[in-house]
Amino acid sequence: MKETLLVIDDDANLRESLAEVLELDGFNCLQAGSAKEGLETAKSKRPTVVILDIQLPDSSGFQICQELRKMSREMVLIMMTGRFLSSEEKTQGFNLGADDYITKPFDLKELSARIRQLLSRAKGK
Question: Does 104 map to a domain?
Answer without folding.
Answer: yes
